[in-house]
Specification:
Elements lengths: L26 H12 L3 H7 L5 H13 L9 H4 L3 H4 L8
């Protein structure tokens, strides 16, 4: 069974709890999307994806250029801290 849920707004990094078993399945596609996003100006990116305040948009735009897709990996179930993830009890697995 597969379940798709939206990512949470807040994330944590936990690189110590579980070893990395494999890289994400769609990493090649993610690299393509990231490259396309990095080609957008700040105003284009904010208009297209982040219909939000300057306070939120500015750090996220900078983050696009600092993002390293194969370092500091954390399973999504442990990284996202929204309510739906908290009630899954993933933190109790280790």
């Amino acid at each position: 069974m597969q379940i798709i849920i939206a990512p949470a707004r807040k994330m944590t990094t936990d690189t110590d709890s579980l070893p990395v078993g494999q890289l994400p399945r769609f990493l090649p596609f993610t690299r393509q999307i990231l490259k396309a996003m990095q080609q957008l100006s700040y105003q284009q990116a904010r208009k297209l994806w982040w219909n939000c305040s300057e306070r939120i948009a500015r750090p996220n735009y900078r983050w696009l250029f600092e993002l390293e897709l194969t370092k500091q990996l954390t399973p999504a179930l442990l990284a996202f801290t929204g309510l739906q993830y908290q009630y899954m009890g993933a933190g109790c697995l280790y």
